[in-house]
Amino acid sequence: MAANLSTGDVPGQSDITSLIDKKQTGCLNGDDSTALESLLEGANALTSDCDEQLILSFPFNQLLMKDTYGETPKILRVFSNLLKIPDFDRASSAEALRILWFTEN
């Protein structure tokens, strides 16, 4: 059963945060002062504690059918049905379901 989603700021996009299983989210390399929980509650930034890399895990509580795109990061690798959050070595070598490249525009 599809949830009622609010319309996003970009035509054709919807806010899917209500579909995130927040108890199962994860972030590797995240700075504690900009926690993932804060980002999900509307904070403007999530920063790394050591370098430019972050691994984010957003499990959803139902199937999503629409693609969503943002302005950052520069590269987004999407994995599906992983049993646990991968480390950076595994994420860089594993086959991604989709790889998205974003420009500065």
From TrEMBL:
The keyword Disulfide bond applies. PROSITE patterns: PITH. Residues 5-105 form the PITH domain. It comes from the Eukaryota. InterPro entries: Galactose-bd-like_sf, PITH_dom, PITH_dom_sf. The keyword Disulfide bond applies. Pfam families: PITH. GO terms for cellular component: cytoplasm. Keywords: Disulfide bond. This is PITH domain-containing protein.
